[in-house]
Amino acid sequence: MILTKTVILKIVNPDNDLVETMQKYSDGMNYASSVVFQNGKTIGSYKLQNIVYGYLREVIGLKSQMSCNIPRQVSGCYKTLKEQIKEGKVIWKEITFSTYSMTLSYKRDFSISQNLVSITTINNGRKPYKIQSYDNAQQYFDGTWKFTASKVVRHKDSNHYFHLSVEKEVPEKELEYPSNYMGIDLGMNYLAVASTTEKKCKFFAGGHIKYIRNQYKSMRARLQSKGTLSAKRMLKHLSGKEQRLMRDVNHIISKEIVKFAIDNDVSVIGLEDLNGIKESTIHNVPKKKRHNHSSWAYRQLHTFIEYKAREAGIITHFVDPAYTSQTCIRCNHISKNNRHRLEFRCEICGYENNADLNGAMNIEHRTRDFRYILESQGCVSATHTNA
Question: Per the database record, which ranges form the Cas12f1-like TNB domain (predicted)?
Fold first, then answer.
């Protein structure tokens, strides 16, 4: 199993050479993008490289490796656009790229040590830049991690950061019998509720996060009503703060969830498959609550849980979330009338529980069914299957 991570490191001494290289790189990306857009359909990366390589090298002045990277990136972006068009989410349009991001190939475009990153620039070749040393980043330079294609990114604070992508092979954990499973229900009352096969449960975050976000919402409304330049600058500042808040909270919650799983010897964590869930459920949410429903970074939280679990040797599995909040865990009766805000009360058998916990229990149950799929594929240890 391949474990991948992105380590964000601040570049201490960015200069004009780096800034100009990023500008030229975005010029190349936008030129290649215009070629694909005018073609009216996607172009494979090899064919696109043949079309744009000479212009990127001779007119824009990019180095050879960058001129190869750009067609691959642009072609990949338009393939993603094509998939979104098939799903009816967008229409054919020209993709534009900013000057705030540049992708580099390891060894060809950059090399890195714990305190220094050397980057190929347009005017002066490979140049060294100091990177700020972080204690939590030292582990990625111990020789066990492999460096891959990474990015230089200018953040909203106007500082430049190196987004170092790393990966390493970690052993797959053998799923043995008996196994303890855990379901995670995401929501607005609690960011996450966990329930295990052994009926252990835990509630994560909740009211105080909702209170802070409501404060941000009120401030945005006041600033938007003013419409001044200073108000727009403050709105941008608030947006950055709220995104950082969500990211920090998601890191904390995901770490606590995985720790709870480890403490309870959980083998598989079940998560809701969020594909399309926002679009399909938003109309069932009262207008006053739609912002909280649609704007929290649930997918990011899933990603954090997934890679932290993988690092701990725990499998993650995504299940269909349909009706998990309306299904009685005792008698399997499904009805909208079963749920009453924070409470779940089955209209048939009378079973009562916290609504989010009932949802987590249903997700755990669907995740447990995953074992039978693994057994049919021979992925469960034969030694323990008949225990």
Answer: 298-363
